[in-house]
Amino acid sequence: MEAAMRSFFLHLAQNRTLSGMAKRYGLRYGAQRFVAGETVESAIETVRKMNRNGMGVTLDHLGEFVEDERDARASTDFCLHTLEAIHEAGVNSSLSLKMTQLGLDIRKDLCHQHMLEILDYASARDIWVNIDMEDFGHCQITLDLFREFAASYQKVQTVIQAYLYRSEKDVEELAQMGASIRIVKGAYKEPATVAYPEKSDVDNNYKRLLDIHLPSPGLTSIATHDENMINHAKQVIAEHGLSQDKYEFQMLFGIRSDLQEQLAREGYPVRIYVPYGDDWYGYFMRRLAERPANVGFVVRGMFH
Predict the structure, then answer these.
(1) Binding-site residues for FAD, please?
(2) Domain map of the chain by residue range?
(3) Catalytic site residue 147?
(4) pLDDT tens-digit readout, 60-87
């Protein structure tokens, strides 16, 4: 039943018609639990609150279905606007983005140009830029571009998904070059030809990736709400005596706030992934797919 619901919500996430309707009707039906408003001003207020609770943030201006160069330019400008808002507010926040928003599916050179503009802007303001990983079809080109950017910019990071078979080899190579990565389990629907279909295999691979990358020179962001993965990371951190500038725990806004605050109280560095914007529909559907229990928030929202 849970697998069927996951498949259902991942299918809905790709529906452009519903995404357009969601934009028109705004943040309703429980989405506001996972999205920090539609404007950068509302997002910065959320960052301040998280900072006061001892946690950093990574801000993501949500966007799906970029179809032309005008859309890609608008997304780039939103990234630059977000960086400027972070800088002016003096808050502890990085920027997260998807390269398809910047035109990767239109022209590689267009996305490359936009990324350099963003990285130059962020570097001048000493702000980290996190390049999110998307579906398997974008994995290789994302890593190719990331390796190029990481050779020139210090504060840039990408994501590795533990459910992919290829990830162990990718992490070994990235660890050798001292790259910074965020390790996640993976939230897209992928075939068994490229991804582990069983949760136990994904969990075991996640632990292997932590074992490989945590001792490496780059920053390791441990992105999970799974306490088994968190406890494994704590063991590796203790065994290697890692300093706090070598790792951080990352979690999603609106999910397991109790665990986020507990880790911060224990003295671990914690960063919260905070999305904002009116194009929230696809992100929201993927959160429902990850944890069908979240559907309860939607039902309650419909009656309020």
Answers:
(1) 133, 161, 185-187, 199, 224-225
(2) 36-279
(3) no
(4) 998 766 889 999 999 999 999 999 999 9
Amino acid at 27: L
- 145-167 b/e (C-beta count within 10 Å ≥ 16 → b): bbeebbeebebbbbbbbbbbeeb
Q: Is the pLDDT of residue 14 over 90?
A: no
Beta bridge partners of 120: none
pLDDT band at 21 (very low <50, low <70, confident <90, very high): very low
> CB–CB of 85/61 below 8 Å?
no
What pLDDT does residue 189 have? 84
Closest alpha carbon to 275 in 130, 90, 88, 149: 130
166 included as an active-site residue: no
Q: How far apart are CA 190 and CA 184, in angstroms?
A: 15
Residue listed under structure tokens 């996972």: 34
pLDDT digits (tens, 9 = 90+) for 247-261: 999 998 988 899 999
The token pair that represents 299 in the structure block: 């039902």
C-alpha torsion 183→190→228→53, nearest 10: 50
Single out the catalytic residue among 60, 132, 203, 279.
132
| CATH class of domain segment(s) 36-279 | alpha beta
Q: How far is CA 174 from CA 61, 108, 115, 157, in A?
A: 27, 22, 20, 11
Classified as helix, coil or strand, 196 is coil
Residue 254 confidence (pLDDT) = 84
Are the CB atoms for 83 and 69 separated by under 8 Å? no
Per-residue tokens: 61: 């201006």
- For 192-219, what is each residue's pLDDT tens digit? 999 999 999 999 999 999 999 999 999 9
The pLDDT value recorded for residue 287 is 60
Annotated active-site residue in 6, 60, 182, 278: 182
